[in-house]
Specification:
It contains four helices and no strands. It is mainly alpha-helical.
Length: about 80
């Protein structure tokens, strides 16, 4: 079983059939150093992370955060 599949063994999976450009798939597998399934899972995770980052960027300037930096760093003023 593939490494990525082991990590998500308890997660639901779906078998898919897709027509992929051979050169792109080979290049992606070579870049990841993994097999087809693990490479596709990694690529899908990157797509998901890109979307999450875009959503976070869209919030820029819209959230009012009050953060105690010294407290969050667990520093005391006497040091």
């Amino acid at each position: 079983m593939n490494e990525g599949m082991n990590a998500a063994a308890s997660a639901r999976t779906r078998r898919v059939t897709a027509n992929l450009p051979v050169a792109l798939l080979e290049d992606a597998c070579a870049a990841s150093g993994r097999g087809i399934t693990d490479t596709l899972v990694q690529g899908l995770r990157l797509v998901r992370a890109t979307r999450a980052a875009a959503k976070a960027r869209a919030l820029r300037g819209r959230l009012l955060l009050e953060v105690d930096l010294e407290g969050s760093r667990e520093r005391t003023r006497g040091r």
